[in-house]
Amino acid sequence: MTLTMHEITVPLLVNTLGNMKNWLGRDDVRATQADLLAARLIEDMRPLTAQYQMASDSAKNGIARLAGIEPPAMPDTEASLDALQERCAKTIAFVRSVTPAQLEGSEDREIVLRFPNGQGYRFHGRDYVTGFMLPNFLFHATTAYALLRTRGIAIGKPDFLAHLGAPVALADPA
User: Helix or strand or coil: residue 123?
Assistant: First the structure.
């Protein structure tokens, strides 16, 4: 059985954005909100707020490109943890709204990215997803996670993979 474009994108985007949204609701994050919003891993990297915005943009814009539709506009105006959580929720809702039928055939669709400096990339949908969209999305999600960790927030890999739930005991194969 072949994986569909919907199966390799939507669950990963929704699960990761849901986990990111939940990180911001933690008491230890809430207690340090003012410091966290502008936190950077290093001076020339964008702050936590931007990492959330760029993860959102990667998800919604990527799915929209694959579906051949316009993504929802989300200006980068979030200035609180609540606003970032709302952006995650809106992005999740949009990504979930794209049906498998809308992504059917998108593995061969031409995707053109144009940057403001006039440069860009051309991809077939499959290469766009595996070579740009998902790596870019996961870069920003991982950077947000690392920013929280470097500021003393006690999250770990189980929080990054929280959508899996707690591991369960497995019976030995007979």
Answer: strand
Each residue's pLDDT, cut to its tens digit, for the chain (174 residues) gives 689 999 999 999 999 999 999 999 999 999 988 889 999 999 999 999 999 999 999 999 999 999 999 999 999 999 999 999 999 999 999 999 999 999 999 999 999 999 999 999 999 999 999 999 999 999 999 999 999 999 999 998 888 888 888 888 888 887
Look at the pTM and tell me if it is higher than 0.90: yes
Q: Are residues 149 and 160 in contact, defined by beta-carbon separation less than 8 angstroms?
A: no
All domains in the chain, ordered by first residue: 5-163 (1.20.120.450)
Would the CA dihedral through 167, 168, 169, 174 be positive or negative? negative
Nearest residue to 87 via CA among 101, 77, 102, 97: 77
Q: Where are the alpha helices (DSSP H) in the chain?
A: 5-23, 27-30, 33-37, 48-67, 81-97, 100-103, 125-128, 134-150, 157-160
Backbone angles phi, psi at 47, to 5 degrees: -75, 175
